[in-house]
């Protein structure tokens, strides 16, 4: 179960575990209603996440598409160096903002 925080126009979702096939369905079910609310910013905080697989990437892309339909911003923060490299290779950073972990 993700930690979900709402602060004004921003909704922050912190899965707190690897975004992989085993948890993807539950994660998708948490994100879907949040995206439908049409937040100005939906932030996925990947602090502590060490792995994102293809199914997890699919969930993030689908959520990005939903948020974009309501002119919202989709941002992924606290991304590890390895996950950042994967996102960059897949050119996901050209579709939504990806911020690496500080330090």
Keywords:
single chain, alpha/beta, 3 helices, globular
Task: Characterise this structure.
The chain has 103 residues and is of the alpha/beta class. The chain has one domain: 2-Layer Sandwich (Transcription Regulator spoIIAA), CATH 3.30.750. It is 40% helix and 25% strand. It is built from three helices and five strands, in the order E-E-H-E-H-E-H-E. A five-stranded mixed β-sheet has the order 1-2-3-4-5. Helix 1 packs parallel to helix 2 (54-69). The N and C termini lie far apart (27 Å).
Itemize the secondary structure elements and their pairings.
Layout: E1 3-7, E2 10-14, H1 21-36, E3 41-45, H2 54-69, E4 73-79, H3 81-89, E5 97-100
Parallel strand pairs: 2-3, 3-4, 4-5
Antiparallel strand pairs: 1-2
Helix pairs in contact: 1-2
């Amino acid at each position: 179960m993700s930690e979900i925080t709402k602060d004004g126009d921003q909704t922050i979702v912190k899965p707190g575990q690897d975004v992989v096939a085993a948890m993807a369905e539950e994660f998708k079910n948490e994100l879907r209603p949040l995206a439908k609310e049409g937040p100005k910013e939906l932030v996925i905080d990947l602090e502590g996440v060490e792995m994102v697989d293809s199914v997890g990437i699919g969930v993030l892309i689908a959520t990005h598409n939903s948020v974009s339909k309501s002119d919202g911003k989709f941002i992924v923060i606290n991304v590890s160096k390895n996950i950042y490299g994967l996102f960059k290779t897949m050119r996901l950073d050209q579709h939504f903002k990806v911020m690496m972990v500080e330090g």
